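Hi, here's the filled form for the chain we discussed.

Project: internal
Contact: R.S.
Residues: 288
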Amino acid sequence: MKKLIISFIVLTILANGTGFALTNKTSKNKEERKTMTNTKIVQTAGRDSLGVFAPEFAHFNDDILFGENWNNKDLSLKTRSLITVVALMSQGITDSSIKYHLQNAKNNGVTKSEIAAAITHTAFYAGWPKAWATFNLAKEVWNENTPALSEKDKYAQTIMFPIGEPNTAYAKYFIGQSYLAPVSTSQVKIYNVTFEPKCRNNWHVHKAKSGGGQMLIAVGGRGYYQEWGKKPIEMKPGDVINIPANVKHWHGAAPDSWFSHLAVEIDGTETSNEWLEPVVDEEYENLK
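And the returned structure, exactly as it came back:
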């Protein structure tokens, strides 16, 4: 079924009236098509990446798929590029491979309006989310003036939990900017706490008559945890710190890295937090 859908989409795109007719009406377009027709495709990615591990696959990729199929003159390179983008998008492949073929399509003469029309048309048959993902890549290739991602947005793409909103309620207990995102607010309370580089909270104590304390689970970036009178412990994704009740400590980002951890509140009796003095720069700057 998927093959039939892809075939139908490709045939529709190539039909007259869609903006992808193969007959060029100007001498300039004729020269462009002639140049593209005479271009020989040479591919070495297979051997570069898999020549030792999978030499037969590398041979099929470089010599057959690109060396023979892509150099077949029955279809222009522009048409092959469009077909390839449609096929990859229809399968939900929106990684570097489709971006490569989007760039290839642009190099082979596909215009911004043509790729936009192709993706839009394919969306009706392959799915709207796939179109959105492909459009985001196409905008990069066709150099749309999209706002540059902030450092926060770039970092957010590296972790699976949301960064959340600025941690204004506890801002007076932090040096630098932190963010708070509730992950679970019933049964077990869990929050994702994110620190900008150099951000850390003050020394503090989770007080409890019995039980209590906190568990930290690092989920992104690099940071530190330190108990009073002990050396700092570096934290990276997957590291877990179990903080006993009534122990003075602090935690936060490394000087050169964003940092996120899940904070898991441990049930106890007569629990409270006592916020103390900041971690001064002289101590903090000794971290690596």
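Let me know if anything looks off before we file it.
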